[in-house]
Each structure stands twice: as C-alpha cells, then as structure tokens.
C-alpha cells in the first residue's frame, strides 16, 4: 500500500519540483542546489549504468544508494542543455580527474542504459543550443524515442540542425504547439523546404503555430488546395516570414482560427 501511495506522490510531485529547475532558462546562481537533481538521477541508475560512469572516471562512492523509484521517469518537461549543465556541475564535484566537457556528454546521453525510458514520455521539448555538431546524435536518437511530444520550441542555427528538427517534428503523433525561431539562421533560397513539410505533417493536431523569420521561397506559388487545411489550429503568429502569401490568404486553410 505504501509503495502505491509513494508512486502516486511521485507522479504528482516530481514533475513540479524537477521542472521548476530543469525547464527554466539556465543561470549560474545557486548552482550547487540546482545540481542536486542529478545526484538523484545517479541514484536511480542501474548497476550497468553506474559501472559505465565509474569506468569513465566518476567517483560514485559518495552518491546515494539505489533509489526505490525511478524518479526521472516521472518528468515530462525540461531544457536539455540545462540537464547537461547540471551533469557537468555535479560531475566536477565528484569526479576523480579529467572531467569531459559537457558538450561531449550531449551527443551520447541517450546511449546510457535506461536513458530511453526517461525520454520516451517527454511532452515538451525546447532546444536553444547553437550549431554544435557534437549534440546532433542526440537529435537523431530523440526522433527514434520521442513521438508523443506536445510542445516544441526550436531555435535554428544551421541547415543540418534544421534537417534533424524536421525529422523530429514529422514523427510526432499529436504535436499541439510549435515555435520555430530562425533569426540566427543563415539562409539560402531552398533551405526551409523540409521544415515546411514537417509542419504540414502536423496540420491535423497543431493548435498553436509560431514562425519567426522562416522563409519558404519554393512555396510562394502553392495554394491551400495543394497543401490542405489546418483543422485544429487556433493561434497563428508569423513574424518576418516569406513564401506563404497564397496559402495564408485563403481563409479555408485555417478552419478554427
């Protein structure tokens, strides 16, 4: 009975407590306290994962013993670069020597045993990381694991990143809110084709769409009849975007706006 009660407590409380830390913009105040959630993550790792960390120079002798519940699996929302930064902070406190840079951890984090279980229930995904090729394997892995994300905030910095985000968007089953900010993106005339079709793939579930400086030159002549309707979209925000005039000019494209 007590385990049932505690599991219910975890389901309600852990998302609130952890997301207050992991879903906030990262700042450097009170870092030690913010890194404590990683200490709990370590306590939830199985023997294989803990052995892998030990072999890579982590001293886990002072970390908590195996936790009763898999606390990280109860979280649904966090900013991935915050998570990696907290790993970095906690590691610097416990590692023996030769701590690796956090960007090296980003690309391989989903290779850790048990990581897919933590990420499979992800509901909100925000990426504000620049053109760092070391984390691209992370995006590749996410599209294989996460297909039930509800909210995405994506900031584009490179064509390679755009391609990976397009794939991640396309595999979602019920994406409701999507923001794409490309103010720092170096454009060429056909670079946004894939993101356009990724957005279209979500036309039946999207409720809110925000586009900032996303250019769709190849679709300037396409009409709404050739693309289809957004049947659930209730809110549309467009800033400094080109190539959608014909589509946007048709009121039949958005039946719920």
From TrEMBL:
Q: Which domain of life is it from?
A: Eukaryota
Write down what this protein is called: 8333_t:CDS:1
Native species: Diversispora eburnea
